[in-house]
Design brief:
The structure holds three protein chains of three kinds. In chain A, 40% of the residues lie in helices and 23% in strands. The radius of gyration of chain A is 27 Å and the shape is extended. In chain A, strand 5 and strand 6 form a beta hairpin. Chain A has helices spanning 10-17, 26-70, 159-162, 164-169, 199-227, and strands spanning 76-83, 86-88, 102-107, 113-123, 128-136, 141-149, 178-180, 191-193. By secondary structure, chain B is mainly α. Chain B is 55% helix and 0% strand. Chain B has 13 helices and no strands. Chain B has helices spanning 20-42, 44-64, 74-84, 92-106, 120-131, 171-178, 184-189, 201-213, 220-239, 247-252, 256-263, 274-294, 301-318. In chain B, helix 1 runs antiparallel to helix 2 (44-64). Chain B is globular. Chain B starts with 19 loop residues before the first helix and ends in a 15-residue tail after the last helix. Chain C contains eight helices and two strands. Chain C has a two-stranded antiparallel sheet. The longest helix of chain C has 31 residues, at 127-157. Chain C is flat and about 60 Å long. Classes of the chains: A alpha+beta, B mainly alpha, C mainly alpha. At the A-C interface, helix 1 and helix 2 of A face helix 1, helix 4 and helix 6 of C.
Chain lengths: 228, 333, 219
């Protein structure tokens, strides 16, 4: 490994350049940096515009698929915003929709509402777990759950996303959910079997859903009452 | 150069009767009752797990260690201790692998006995914990017969369990996840779930106490650990007994007994000064209380000891005794 | 004076004898962080390769115009531009891979291997030679990442490129897909390489020339 210095005379430049260094006018430094920055900016604007549609389309598709999945294929859905402790479909004129919490109300083909798709996130074992779940306010049951983002231990905690048995546990279970260790279920309709070895991640998922419903449940009830 | 009549040697010239192999084999001997208790409560499977870990450790020492290092007994201790930290139904090939990792990466890679920073057995266990988090937290229910092996144990190398087994729980897990406290008498005698060596607090204390009496381990370390755990968890328990477990439970559950008597006191990875030992023990105790109460995992003795192992060089430096006649800091070193 | 090297040496030097990760120990952050699967390793390798190549071309082209006082900031600006381009392109073309690599694409900016090649080579050599050097170094980086990724995916998931190779009952060594596994793996690789090098040297000393004795000339 003696050849590590071959041909990359970087270490030899400084002592050489030091004695014969001449003063470079500062305008040249500014021009160099300025023009590099300008070219870089121009290039980035071009690439940004070229890639942005695909990126946005992908994000929209991820959301669409998630809502489809947790509400079991709604015909269409409305986006509702959480404003001042209530749900509204039409935002007040001057409100900026960015940054507002959203829930999605899905409908059957015949116009009957199926339920709400609600997103939520809380700390799991390693980092925040983000998920979306469907909720039927009529029967107070969860209709489906999908983890959108997690950094849980690969092969263990990330089973909350990848283990289809665990994900299916949520379909049709009553709220509030209760996590039980596998093999200890009593058969109650609100029980969710947790993943062996990933108790903390499993609990986090259950807690997210319960907490979101504690917060949004009354709002959903109020919204439905108003709509009738 | 050297003449047989005039031999110049460096001090010390008076030696005690203790030697490394002697101390080490004494520790091995004092572990025998602990292993026997583990075998009594957890069955034949636990003994196999301990044997596999010890075999892995000894073979690695034999193949990669320096000549004759097998005889000093340190590899046997590492293997036994590692086996004692594993669940009784642990797959044997993983146990063996843990022994290999403990010796190869816990000790030999640093240069052999006396050079390692971390307790090799715990390093092996930390590796297994990170590699096989499910298997290492799968505890038997304790309802199997003595000769019955868990089906996971015989799994082929690299392969997992073929069947889903019914799993039991440890006292710490029960507390952490379900807020169920375990009876103190069970904790003392060892009739509880958990790793092979997390059994009888009484037996472990007797064996550790023997070593402390013979001065083969520094009693200040376990004393510092127990005192800190007792005081800190006692204070928390007085604040909110529903949320924090009682100090007695904290002392006698999990691997605290085994860790405090046999692992924290490893001569290579603990401080050499008395004050250093007190600080070392107190640090481990505080970390154990911290991890058990607020950490993600139910048990934290392993990480507490490993973290404090990393502090040992600093503790040795900070607690250096003053040379007589000098001020602190100007000792000729 | 920097010794002149032939274009062939420019190319092969970076691939093996001065491999950026395995010999020079540069760019260890991505090499440790995102090599838990072969696909991630390839994606990270290609993204870095792209950034290195484009930056080298640009730096070499304008090497006479960039005053040495601001050369580092200019290089970083150029590198950062291409990193952002790679980031956006990956997100648009392969969003799944982009999600898996996360922040580490943006962190290519601080991969000292890239800045190192600009400072040490591209800023003093003609464009064609800078391209050859960048290709060699980039391939060396990809090779190192692939070695890491293969070992970690095989042990950590029991698969290679997603295909199971041990059967369905394999018990994955989860530690190898976690960060500690990265350190373990690179430690193993370096251990093996150094052991091999040393054995080669010892053999050469013992007088029995190994097969590749010609490569062993002292620099």
């Amino acid at each position: 490994m003696s050849g590590a210095g071959d041909g990359n005379g970087g270490s030899r430049v400084l002592p050489q350049a030091a004695p014969q260094r001449e003063e470079v006018p500062s305008w040249r430094l500014l021009v160099t940096l300025g023009s590099t920055g300008a070219i870089a900016g121009l290039l980035l604007v071009f690439v940004y515009q070229a890639t942005q549609p695909a990126i946005q389309a992908y994000r929209a598709m991820v959301l669409r698929q998630a809502v489809q999945e947790v509400l079991k294929g709604p015909e269409r859905w409305d986006t509702l915003y959480v404003v001042d402790g209530g749900l509204v479909q039409e935002l007040p004129a001057e409100t900026d929709p960015a940054g507002l919490e959203m829930v999605f109300l899905g409908y059957h083909e015949d116009g009957q509402p199926i339920g709400f798709a609600i997103t939520g996130g809380e700390f799991g074992f390693q980092d925040i777990i983000d998920l979306i779940f469907g909720y039927d306010p009529g029967t107070k049951t969860v209709t489906g759950m999908k983890v959108l983002a997690n950094k849980e231990t690969p092969g263990l905690g990330d089973k909350i996303e990848k283990d289809s048995v665990f994900v299916a546990e949520f379909d049709g279970s009553e709220t509030p959910l209760v996590g039980v260790k596998s093999g200890r279920a009593t058969g109650a309709a609100n029980e969710v079997d947790m993943i062996t070895g990933a108790t903390i991640s499993s609990r986090a998922v259950i807690a997210i859903i319960n907490h979101r419903l504690e917060l949004l449940g009354p709002m959903i009830a109020a919204y439905l009452e108003e709509a009738n | 150069m050297s003449s047989s009549r005039l031999l110049v040697t460096a001090s010390p010239h008076l030696r005690g009767p203790a030697s490394t192999p002697k101390i080490m084999w004494n520790v091995v001997g004092s572990l025998v009752p602990v292993v026997a208790t583990a075998g009594y409560f957890f069955g034949f499977g636990a003994l196999l797990v301990i044997a596999a870990a010890t075999l892995g450790a000894l073979l690695t020492e034999m193949v990669f260690g320096s000549k004759g290092s097998l005889g000093d007994g340190s590899a046997a201790i590492t293997g036994l201790l590692l086996g004692l930290t594993l669940p009784p139904g642990f797959p044997l090939w993983m146990s063996f692998l843990g022994g290999v990792v403990a010796i190869a990466f816990g000790k030999l890679i640093f240069g052999g006995l006396g050079q390692n920073m971390f307790n090799p057995a715990l390093l092996g266990r930390a590796f297994l914990q990170a590699a096989f988090p499910v298997a290492i937290t799968t505890w038997p229910t304790g309802e199997e017969g003595w000769w019955n092996l868990s089906p996971t144990q015989a799994s082929l190398p690299l392969m997992g369990a073929e069947v889903d087994t019914v799993t039991g729980a440890t006292p710490l897990g029960l507390w952490k996840f379900e807020r169920i406290a375990t009876d103190a008498v069970d904790l003392l005698t060892g009739a509880i779930g958990g790793s092979a060596g997390e059994t009888s607090a009484v037996v472990i204390t007797i064996c550790g106490g023997y070593l402390a009496l013979r001065n083969f381990l520094n009693w200040r370390i376990p004393a510092g650990i127990f005192l800190t755990v007792f005081v800190l968890s006692g204070a928390l328990w007085l604040i909110d007994a529903g949320r924090y477990p009682s100090p007695v439970f904290m002392l006698f559950s999990g691997g605290l007994m085994l860790g405090a008597w046999f692992m924290a006191t490893d001569m290579v990875t603990s401080p050499v000064t008395s004050r250093g030992c007190w600080i070392f023990g107190a640090g481990i105790g505080a970390l154990v209380v911290l991890i058990r109460n607020w950490g993600g995992l139910p048990e934290g003795v392993m990480y507490a000891i490993l973290l404090m192992n990393a502090m040992v060089p600093y503790l040795n430096q900070w607690t250096q005794p003053r040379v007589f006649g000098t001020r602190l800091g100007e000792a000729a070193s | 004076m920097p010794r002149q090297t032939t274009p062939g040496q420019d190319l092969t030097r970076g691939i093996w004898r001065e491999n950026p990760v395995l010999i020079q120990m540069l760019g260890l952050c991505p090499a440790l962080a995102v090599t838990n699967t072969v696909v991630n390793s390839i994606a990270m390798g290609l993204a870095t390769f792209f950034v290195l190549l484009c930056s080298s071309i640009l730096v070499s082209t304008f090497r006479k115009l960039i005053p040495s006082e601001v050369r580092i900031s200019t290089y970083i600006l150029i590198i950062a531009t291409f990193v952002t381009i790679a980031d956006m392109t990956l997100e648009a073309v392969v969003p799944e891979v982009h999600k898996a690599l996360g922040a580490f694409i943006a962190l290519i900016v601080v991969n000292c291997m890239i800045l190192g090649r600009q400072e040490a080579f591209a800023s003093k050599n003609t464009v064609p030679r800078a391209i050859i050097d960048a290709v060699g170094t980039g391939i060396g980086f990809i090779i190192a990442l692939l070695m890491m990724g293969s070992i970690r995916e095989i042990l950590g998931y029991g698969t290679f490129l997603g295909f199971p190779i041990f059967g369905s009952n394999y018990e994955p060594w989860i530690v190898f897909i976690l960060p500690p596994g990265g350190f373990f793996t690179i430690g193993f690789i370096l251990l093996a390489l150094n052991w091999w090098e040393r054995r080669k040297l010892e053999r050469a000393r013992a007088g029995e020339p190994p097969a590749g004795a010609a490569v062993e000339r002292a620099a």
